[in-house]
């Protein structure tokens, strides 16, 4: 790209297709100036990136119940204080304590005895194999329908291999994730229904790579809890090719994961008290726990440091919110959602009035919108703010849920919002050893923090 | 990110703020179906990513006049044929032949004799230093105003160090590039005006890194052509700190670059003849040359392989364009723009009727819009297509130039367009050794190719 021709490539606000902004009831001029200040503060002096480096390098991954998760609780409380929260406290949450045990082993064993190891890892909450592992023939399926047709006659005693790749046609990779994800979530029990002894699932990843991607699954209590693992997408491609050439191929799986007694852990909450309407509460957050692969940099260290940045940026600009802002670092999103449930339950018991909740849990990538679920009136008010975000390339406002951790609040009728970010790279690293700090771009992360800060500013001054 | 809560996160087309689409004069339904097919084809069977791997690994960087640029010409012609062009030909272009020579050396030499090497590289078209290098005191400036104020009294015999960082407040990094870029483009001659013996410029990069970022500059013919180099941003930070503590610090620069005789090279052109209006020509392209740092993966290998993908995708879908489509791999964008000028000149001489030109030259990142420069009527027609792109997150349509290579066509009154992509990561690697294939994301690259193919489809069927 040549220099002189690009001097003029300045972003222009295409107001012409935002005609409804003229009817807005509040002063968008003043708000737009404050939002500009917030963006400048975050982009020039933001701490989210260095906080994420600290979280991922000093603590690392943070599976619920782990010593690292306990360290992360202390760390988040300290960071909220440093950012300028009026008060910081911990909210008790009992969390499941599942441990992976020793490194899993997965081996393709062909009829002629040839053996090839492939990358596997236990799905979260999976049962272990017997101590010496399991070896069995493999049945590859591409849908639950196919599984059902094969039935017990073909499945019994076998390992079911769900090999359903992402549908690359979806522009939003979350849609492909959603479609393929049911085989991870419900696949093991469905396989057990027909007598399978174990289940392996193609990693829920958008690319061909060598990382197994773990994630949550749930056993059907009326069926045997068979061991289940994710296999890397490259490993799945290899296994599929070998099975076509040699249907007698077996798979050997060994994993020693187990579910221990529940552990006392915490949501971490930092608050800026509202000056005019202190009893109207706005939540913004992400989840502090992660899987035990990689260091949970995008999922969801990003959401945590962005949320803390909201306090820091508003404080730095001496903005005193009219309504109370609560930053919540939720515990146990990945394998239980206990933190989100506990927060909502406590809010209900205390009869607290939550007017909105916002979550960032789709990775620290370039933001381009907000999703929102609420009443028609709330949505209309929310949409009036859209033009304020256009100069920052945040243009997409849709009607969807906000995030897992705030879904229990949503069930109580609280309007919820989620930061929508570019999804192209997320599922290359999601729940895998590749989800590390080096995959996070500083400016992309900061732009998300700035967008969240701006929205929380608007909510705190105008309500919803 | 938990599975079950995100099943529903499906992209919704927010039609409500695209009311003008109803007045569109053509069948958007049929077009939207074809665009869906084009996207599916590119996302499922696209060849742009593997072509880019081939270009960058088999050929590498492709500075004008180099043997690699000559190889790239053959490669591009072959790829256009494979993609299904009706005809492919080369258009002669004489290009400057500047060579870097041996690896440059830049050393900070403190008053006490302590020496520290820092990463530097000659700016494109720079003069060499004397064989043994240049050593001189350093004057750091942050603007041309500052330089002027210092004047000959302070500058004469010194090395001017332009240390103007990107303004991080700009969401679009091209704006920061444009602002800081004048010091690279015009800085050397401005320094020479006051008697400087050399000039070093802080790399035009959005991040702190260890790569010097080269790029074009132009000497003012009435002033001495002093040697000029880029210093990495980390190196610039270091030099600046040292100068503050020790103003007597000198800098040693050695480079052996030189401008050789011009070389015969080529634009590569592949054509799909229009069925109904063969004399109405639509150009789509990028530039085949690159700097000699990295492998020109994003700049502009991406634009080349995306443009070739237009032919491949339309051919695969048996789409026969009504108007003629010409894919042009322009030569010598980086240091001369000779290819773009030659193409436009030849078009004028042959009295060809170009109805539009499109360029991709901002990196192979997630696309979110098109810029466009043309008459009011052309813009209105162009904007009517905006709703067709919304399902693909391509939403931003502004009035700007299209790209450097097609700017000579623009001067002839041809409406020009440019693919607008997410700019957050581009200037970390632009014109540097870090611009390599591993920085390109397959889906991001393909989404750009699909957006371009869809726009060229519309232009070829509906004109402008």
Question: Keywords, please?
Answer:
2 domains, Glucose Oxidase, domain 1, 36% helix, 14 helices, 8-stranded mixed sheet, Aminopeptidase, 464 residues, alpha/beta, homodimer, disordered N terminus, 16 strands
Account of the 3D structure:
Two copies of one chain form a homodimer. The first copy, chain A, is of the alpha/beta class and 464 residues long. Chain A has two domains: 4-96 and 262-462, Aminopeptidase, CATH 3.40.630; 101-256, 3-Layer(bba) Sandwich (Glucose Oxidase, domain 1), CATH 3.50.30. Chain A is built from 14 helices and 16 strands. Chain A has helices at 28-45, 48-59, 67-83, 144-155, 173-185, 187-193, 233-245, 297-316, 338-349, 376-384, 386-389, 407-411, 426-429, 442-462; strands spanning 87-99, 105-109, 115-118, 120-122, 134-141, 159-162, 198-202, 228-231, 250-254, 258-272, 277-287, 323-330, 353-359, 367-373, 396-398, 416-421. In chain A, the strands form two sheets. An eight-stranded mixed β-sheet of chain A has the order 1-10-12-11-13-16-14-15, sandwiched between helices. The first copy, chain A, has an eight-stranded mixed β-sheet with strand order 3-2-9-5-6-7-8-4. In chain A, helix 2 crosses helix 8 (297-316) and helix 3 (67-83) runs parallel beside helix 8. Chain A is elongated and about 75 Å long. Mean pLDDT of chain A is 94; it is low at 2-25. The interface between A and B is large, with 73 and 73 residues.
